[in-house]
Amino acid sequence: xxxxxxxxxxxxxxxxxxxxxxxxxxxxxxxxxxxxxxxxxxxxxxxxxxxxxxxxxxxxxxxxxxxxxxxxxxxxxxxxxxxxxxxxxxxxxxxxxxxxxxxxxxxxxxxxxxxxxxxxxxxxxxxxxxxxxxxxxxxxxxxxxxxxxxxxxxxxxxxxxxxxxxxxxxxxxxxxxxxxxxxxxxxxxxxxxxxxxxxxxxxxxxxxxxxxxxxxxxxxxxxxxxxxxxxxxxxxxxxxxxxxxxxxxxxxxxxxxxxxxxxxxxxxxxxxxxxxxxxxxxxxxxxxxxxxxxxxxxxxxxxxxxxxxxxxxxxxxxxxxxxxxxxxxxxxxxxxxxxxxxxxxxxxxxxxxxxxxxxxxxxxxxxxxxxxxxxxxxxxxxxxxxxxxxxxxxxxxxxxxxxxxxxxxxxxxxxxxxxxxxxxxxxxxxxxxxxxxxxxxxxxxxxxxxxxxxx
Amino acid sequence: xxxxxxxxxxxxxxxxxxxxxxxxxxxxxxxxxxxxxxxxxxxxxxxxxxxxxxxxxxxxxxxxxxxxxxxxxxxxxxxxxxxxxxxxxxxxxxxxxxxxxxxxxxxxxxxxxxxxxxxxxxxxxxxxxxxxxxxxxxxxxxxxxxxxxxxxxxxxxxxxxxxxxxxxxxxxxxxxxxxxxxxxxxxxxxxxxxxxxxxxxxxxxxxxxxxxxxxxxxxxxxxxxxxxxxxxxxxxxxxxxxxxxxxxxxxxxxxxxxxxxxxxxxxxxxxxxxxxxxxxxxxxxxxxxxxxxxxxxxxxxxxxxxx
Lengths: 455, 307
Prior knowledge:
By secondary structure, chain A is an alpha+beta fold. Chain A contains 14 helices and 16 strands. Chain A has helices spanning about 40-45, 55, 65-80, 85-120, 130-135, 135-160, 180-200, 255, 285-290, 295-310, 320-340, 390-410, 420-430, 435-440; strands at about 1-10, 15-20, 30-35, 165-170, 170, 220-225, 230, 235-240, 245-250, 260, 270-275, 280, 360-365, 370-375, 385-390, 445-455. In chain A, helix 4 runs antiparallel to helix 6. Chain B is an alpha/beta fold. Chain B is about 35% helix and about 10% strand. In chain B, the strands form 2 sheets. In chain B, strands 2-1-3-5-7 form a 5-stranded parallel beta sheet. Chain B is globular. At the A-B interface, strand 1, helix 1, helix 3, helix 4 and helix 5 of A face helix 1, helix 2, helix 3, helix 5 and helix 8 of B. Chain B: Keywords: Oxidoreductase. Chain B: It holds the Pfam family Oxidored_q6. Chain B: InterPro entries: Hydrogenase_assoc-protein, NADH_UbQ_OxRdtase-like_20kDa, NiFe_Hase_small_N_sf. Chain B: One of its GO terms (molecular function) is oxidoreductase activity. Chain A: This is Ni/Fe hydrogenase subunit alpha.
């Protein structure tokens, strides 16, 4: 058997590889997306006080720590039976938006765009954000400025730009000052301007690109608030492979909809709908689920996006464009929330007294998709059981099949050119997989593609 | 010839690489003077090349692949810098040592509510080592930069200095040094859980009964958490006095400080503490240096490994 390895897959968050098995004619027999790390958060959180979960779980991922922070905080609200006051909730929403602005701009401009703007045949040393800085210095500066706003916003609301700690049971630990609000509002206007300028590049990005690449047919899952785009709060809607709505859930009901399974060759679990249908989460899924974004410019972008991809799209590469529509929405929502007079209120926390519910499920849309934190505690609030369902596990099947689809197209006579290898990685990167999230992982890697020839 | 820089990722969260990106516009100045030749999160080069001037290694060592990567980057780099608390002290990955490897795998793949009891436990993957390690436990490290992750203000001083070969003197104080709280009177002290009540913003959190690790934790974070009314939980690793003195340990020093503050005997203080692993050692449990201290509680917390 002959193996081709792309190991590590680079420009994604964490360690993954691809293994391609060839038959004796040198054609692709099968291919898999392989993750080589696990960190074991689900197990090692047991025994911890539940109020520590919002502080420990951000360390699952340095790119989307806020998502874990907020999902865990929402679970603790339920356990202590405390609802954040209006300002506390708005601050959490704003914190979540800071996460999106940083993560989506990082992915679009720094991780994915180099493929499209510099071409996937460009040498690997320059096919990255630094190469982008040399190729399009203005664009790189703007990308840096807008991501900086995301991080500044996260720091102001969450206490720190990476691994924020201000969300706690019942709300937030500190209010937003008027001076800080004014400073952030100015930055938000600038970020929105950059986001809108960037749409000129983004919306043509997939012109002439074969979006059948890495195609896979699945159902979808994403949060929506009565049809409007929502990432902090609301029921999670589930669509089948035809785009028909099969239901929605909140809280513990997620266990009625999904099940996890594992394979021998990857630390990364797979998630599917009960009954066996596979589904995807993240920007593509969310846009498939919502009727509208609820903000002016994002709705205009959504209309343009739908002209090309339809109301429910299966195209993996459309993730990149869907992500950008969300990026615009995030900037608009930041402007909107920062101009809300209620955002600087001082009532940000409902004090927790004691454990009211032994189980809490915090669900939030992380940039990469639906994130579920499920904790069961004893009467003293010490964690007994914990289940974390992260976006990349839910996309694992689609990534795995997408890899095989592209491998079949680009592996020629048992050989893989650098450019072809990168095309395989492009499909993986479309999902912006977060491997450290996915495995709550131990260890990390860029990607190895292995070609394995069956003897 | 410009300076060649690499960033290697082991068992961690990529937050330290994001912290480097958080130099923001200064990053463009850095890449003017230096070439980033290898960084898997942001570029496509698959393996660290030979002849790296400065390599940053982030994350702990938890599996065989991490260990191989650490050895390789050490061989190929003139200067090796441990970047972040995971590399320096094992970080949260160390908490996985509270359970055996088999217990972890069994729980993740067979016991959580959404998996089936006959779930596959992967074997065709890099095997776990018997424990977690900080990188300095396994190889020679030239510089340590702690922080989970290291903060922008400091990286903006450290990285340009490293690139230009300048020496730099930075604060070596604890988190308390940057904290603006006053001590105030401490009466009828009892330990509070971190969810209980709302701390007042003016006075020392430890004095108010919250387990704040500021006094035993290395600073350079601007006391970000205490300033936001959140007790410190030690993410920068131990303060310098604890690191340097073999007979000093995070737990022991916390007990002593609480006792001094409250006039309660140390034995009484110890009775009030709970879940020492997650409250005192969440970021240092994987460090041999911290475990080897005579007074450390880590050995009691970690089950002996036989795998």
